[in-house]
Structure formats: structure tokens, C-alpha cells
Design brief:
With 434 residues, this protein is an alpha+beta fold. It contains twelve helices and eleven strands. It has a five-stranded mixed beta sheet. A four-stranded antiparallel beta sheet has the order 1-4-3-2, with helices on both faces. Helix 1 runs antiparallel to helix 7, helix 3 (44-54) runs antiparallel to helix 4 (62-72) and helix 8 runs antiparallel to helix 9.
Length: 434
């Protein structure tokens, strides 16, 4: 909320500042410099003495009155030639000066005015100007007043902006929490807001979108689960029929064909089991959390692998400690990675693990051809297989890595692919502290 509030507040303050400058220049163009007007008001007493006392003297007493003003005033009044006075004036000020008006010099806290336009005051008065210095002009006070006024406006805006930002931020936080829960698999998560809330229309559209996604996913899961279950029955009947047929067939060639058909049926059965496993991971069933020994679980997982032509190097240290999670699911993910490595390794597969401050890291390496960098994210998609994985000997169904990725994600961990020190692919499981 603080970040949203500060950004909006800074934007408002910048807008007010720009508006203040625009107002200042507009007033300056239309009505004159506001600061010059303030300075004129501050020097009003001296201007009044000059215009209402000195200028009202008879022709032979003008200088006498000016001298009297000099005696009682702290302001210094000098008579200077007009040419000297005009040197320091701008074109606009010079025109006003030539008309006989008072011209204020803010920088030097002084004023200039012609003594006389016609020489009536004294002989040569039309060639001289009055230069009054040390006027009681203090623009700092005016600027301070403007700063105080600006600060009051800022503080007055601070309260409604804070209330407005807080209302929006609370609604946005609720939407963020709903999005997090929905992304974590809680498809029933919805935003509960009142119609009067500021972001109620957005929440309604998000709820509508979540409802449609939930319906589509539930339909997909239901179809996948139902079809997988229904297929298991005819598969069982076919297995039984093939066994009977194989025993009664006398032709060797026919028995070989029946054996190939049994292999196809076994492959189909494995696919169904994988699909059911995917369906269970996508369901809302809670994980079976338990505390288990990491060293024992990982070594048992490696020992349960089917025999393979490649060697398996297990580097799991003793005393890794325990972890709190779904042991069956985590070891299934690790086993999938090991079986995948066995398929593509040329001669060696390595399993290593470490634990530091509760965070667990498991590495599965092989010396096979590796996985191209541009395809490392795609291999976790269901049914995605690299070109070299499509033959019958090494290719699976493209579900093993997907199941492993989902199992690790359900524990809040990550599964990444890098280049292995052995030359092939390295799969790294990172599990956060339980």
C-alpha cells in the first residue's frame, strides 16, 4: 500500500507543482509579475512619501522636502542621470520608466522613477531620476508564505489520497490472494467484495473467469479419470485373452505375434497408469505428509530401479536428516528422473544429494546426449517428447518428467535442467525447508 500511495501522492504533487508554475507565468503575462506586486506593497510607504509628500511640494521646495525625507528615512534617496538609470532596465521596465512610473528592482531592493517629465520640479529635473535603495523588501517572506500554502495543500490532499489508496489496495490485495490460491490449485477460490467497492467490476470479471477455468479443468480431469478407469477393464480382459491364446497357439510365428501384442497391451496399461497418476496430482486431494529420513528414502529409491545396462553411482551422504513431506510422491519424482536418465545415458548415471539449513538439493546426472537449452522447459509438458524419444526402445509417453515437475511443485520446490559434469543432462530438485 505504501508504494501505491507514495507513487500516487508524488504524481499529484508534481501535477500541483506544474500547475503552480503555469498559473504563475499566466498571471505574469496577463497582470504582471506577482512578486513585483508583493514588493510594491512592501515598499508602499516609501512610494507614498515620494508621490504624496515630495511630489506635492511647490517647484522651489521639491528638493527641500526630498532632503527632509532623507533625514527621517532609512531608505537612501539619490538623484542619478536618466541614462544611468536606463542601463539596468529591461525593455518593459524601460518603457514604464519613460512613462514616469515607479520601477521596482527586486534583486537590489531598490526603485527607480523619473523626477519629472517636463522639468517643472527644478531646472534639469527632466534629466534625472530618483534611485531609492535599501527598501524594506523581503521576497523570502512571500516565498515562505507560498511554501506554507503549498504544504497545506499537500497535507490536505494527503488524507483523501491515503483513504482512496487504502480502499484500492485492500481490494487489490484480496485479488492477489485469490489469484495465488487459484494458481496453487484451489479452484474454488473467489473474491468476496461488495458492489460498492471500487474494484468490484474487476473482481466480478476475475470470478467469472475463474469459474470458467474451473469448469473446463474439472471437465478435463473428470474425462481423463473416467476414460482411464474405463480402459483398465478391457485391458484386463485382453491380457487374460492373450494369455489363453498364447498357451493354445501352436505356431511359433503366431506366438511371436501374440507376444508383440502383449507388449503393446503392457505399454497401453502403463500409459493408463501414468494418466491416473497425473489425474491424482491434478486433483484437490491433500498430500500425505510425514517425516521421513532423506538418506534412507533416496537410497531405497535408487535400489528399487529395474536392472539397466548403465551403472548407477549413488552419492547420498549419511545423516542428511529428516524432511517433512509426501515421501511416496517425492521418491516417485526422483525415480522418474533416474529412469529417464537410464534411458538416455551412454554408460553412467549419478544420484547425489545435499541438505543445508533445511533446504534439500537432489541431482540426477547422466552422460547421454543432454537436452537442448531451448527445449528444457518444454520437456515438462505432458506428452512432449524430444525427437530422439519417439522410438519404441527409449521413448516413453512424455509423462514421467511432467509428473516429477508437478510433484516437486506441490511441495513448493523447483525442478531445473542444466548441463551435467558427466556431459549429458542434470536434473536438479530444490526443496525448500519444510
Amino acid at each position: 500500500m505504501n508504494r501505491l500511495f507514495l507513487r500516487f501522492f508524488i504524481l499529484v504533487m508534481l501535477s500541483i507543482s506544474v500547475a503552480a508554475f503555469i498559473v504563475y507565468f499566466t498571471i505574469d503575462r496577463m497582470f504582471g509579475d506577482p512578486l513585483a506586486s508583493i514588493a510594491r506593497n512592501q515598499a508602499a510607504a516609501q512610494i507614498f512619501l515620494l508621490e504624496q509628500y515630495v511630489d506635492q511640494a511647490p517647484a522651489d521646495g521639491w528638493l527641500d522636502r526630498l532632503n527632509k525625507v532623507r533625514e527621517v528615512s532609512e531608505v537612501r534617496f539619490d538623484l542619478i542621470p536618466i541614462a544611468v538609470a536606463r542601463e539596468h532596465l529591461s525593455a518593459t521596465e524601460r518603457a514604464a520608466f519613460d512613462r514616469g512610473e515607479v520601477v521596482i528592482d527586486l534583486t537590489n531592493r531598490s526603485l527607480l522613477r523619473r523626477v519629472d517629465l517636463s522639468g517643472d520640479k527644478y531646472i534639469g529635473s527632466d534629466e534625472e531620476a530618483i534611485h531609492a535603495q535599501n527598501l524594506p523588501i523581503d521576497i523570502k517572506v512571500a516565498l515562505q508564505m507560498e511554501a506554507v500554502r503549498y504544504l497545506i495543500v499537500a497535507l490536505a490532499l494527503l488524507v483523501p489520497i491515503g483513504i482512496w489508496s487504502r480502499a484500492h489496495w485492500r481490494g487489490l490485495q484480496e485479488l492477489m490472494q485469490v489469484a495465488d490460491r487459484f494458481g496453487a490449485g484451489q479452484l474454488k477460490a473467489r473474491a468476496e467484495m461488495k458492489p460498492g467497492d471500487s474494484i468490484y467490476p474487476l473482481a466480478e470479471r476475475i470470478n467469472h473467469m475463474a469459474g470458467r477455468i474451473e469448469t473446463l479443468l474439472e471437465s478435463q480431469r473428470g474425462l481423463l479419470h473416467s476414460v482411464s478407469h474405463e480402459i483398465r477393464t478391457p485391458i484386463a480382459r485382453l491380457e487374460f485373452a492373450f494369455e489363453l491364446l498364447h498357451d493354445t497357439a501352436g505356431d511359433v510365428l503366431l506366438q511371436k505375434r501374440i507376444g508383440n501384442m502383449q507388449d503393446d497391451l503392457t505399454e497401453l496399461k502403463s500409459l493408463v497408469n501414468e494418466l491416473l497418476g497425473m489425474a491424482r496430482l491434478d486433483s484437490d486431494q491433500p498430500l500425505r505428509y510425514e517425516t521421513f529420513d532423506l538418506t534412507e528414502a533416496l537410497r531405497s529409491c535408487a535400489n528399487s530401479l529395474p536392472p539397466a545396462t548403465v551403472s548407477l553411482d549413488v552419492s547420498v551422504p549419511d545423516g542428511m536428516g529428516t524432511y517433512y513431506g509426501d515421501c511416496r510422491l517425492l521418491m516417485r519424482a526422483t525415480g522418474n528422473l533416474l529412469r529417464n536418465a537410464q534411458k538416455y545415458a551412454n554408460g553412467k548415471v549419478a544420484l547425489s544429494a545435499s541438505s543445508k539449513l533445511g533446504e534439500v538439493t537432489i541431482n540426477v546426472d547422466d552422460d547421454g546426449p543432454g537436452i537442448p537449452e531451448e527445449e528444457r522447459e518444454k520437456v515438462f509438458e505432458p506428452f512432449y517428447r524430444l525427437d530422439r524419444s519417439r522410438d519404441r526402445n527409449t521413448g516413453g509417453f512424455g509423462l514421467g518428467l511432467s509428473i516429477a515437475g508437478k510433484a516437486i511443485s506441490l511441495h513448493g520446490g523447483s525442478l531445473k535442467i542444466d548441463t551435467s559434469p558427466l556431459g549429458g543432462a542434470r536434473f536438479t530438485i530444490s526443496l525448500p525447508p519444510a
